[in-house]
Specification:
This protein is of the alpha+beta class and 208 residues long. It contains nine helices and five strands; from the N terminus they run αααααααβββαββα. The N terminus is likely disordered.
């Protein structure tokens, strides 16, 4: 695993910037671009100037990897965002934030996005006391999220809560770590998106 991380981070440094290939790892102190902000190798070269298309594609790939969605899912969300009123780019980011796997991670009930998706897919997460197995489910105000009432699952969730202690929780969700529950208070806003994404570049690319 360390070798895979190393190869991916070398690719980022070779390209002259973050490709966000490892999702949230790229925002941590483990990110190799922070530790060694220069291309790998003995004879390094300055990064190539990117074309407009390259910049747009990089931003789209960044968003996909940060939220862990595939190309088809991303296209479907973009189409949905385009049909909604308001700014398409902001609508897209808000839809990504509303995904159940993202909310479970925000509540601190999972150790990673993959772990959150696994909990949901195995039927260990409840929405309004009903089993939900779709990680892409879009939460809405009033929804209550809870963990399955099973000792082994509760133990896993408590370990995740302990690991995520001190994590900032946005105002649009309410977390109760003691009872392993959370509630959606409102729809998220653009300023609630914690990632540095230039959504307008994504809109320009996907609108072509």
């Amino acid at each position: 695993m360390a070798r895979i991380h190393g190869n991916v981070c070398k690719l980022c440094r070779r390209e002259g910037g973050k490709l966000f290939l490892k999702g949230q790892r790229c925002f941590s102190e483990k990110c190799a671009v922070h530790r060694r902000p220069y291309p790998p190798g003995m004879h390094t070269r300055p990064p190539r100037k990117r074309s407009e298309f390259g910049l747009q594609l990089r931003e789209k790939q960044k968003a996909k990897r940060l939220y862990g969605v595939m190309e088809k899912q991303f296209r479907n969300l973009f189409a949905k965002a385009k049909r909604q009123r308001g700014n398409t780019g902001e609508n897209l980011l808000i839809l990504l934030e509303r995904r159940l796997d993202n909310v479970v991670l925000l509540l601190g009930l999972a150790q990673s996005r993959f772990h959150a998706r696994q909990l949901i897919a195995h039927g260990n997460i409840r929405i309004n006391n009903k089993k939900m197995t779709v990680p892409s489910y879009l939460v809405k105000p009033g929804d209550e999220i809870s963990v399955k009432d099973k000792e082994s699952i509760q133990k896993i969730a408590k370990e995740a809560v302990e690991l995520n202690k001190g994590q900032a929780i946005p105002d649009w969700v309410e977390a109760d770590p003691t009872s392993l529950r959370g509630k959606i208070l409102a729809f998220p806003k653009r300023e609630d998106v914690p990632h540095p994404i230039q959504e307008q570049l994504i809109v320009e690319l996907c609108s072509k």
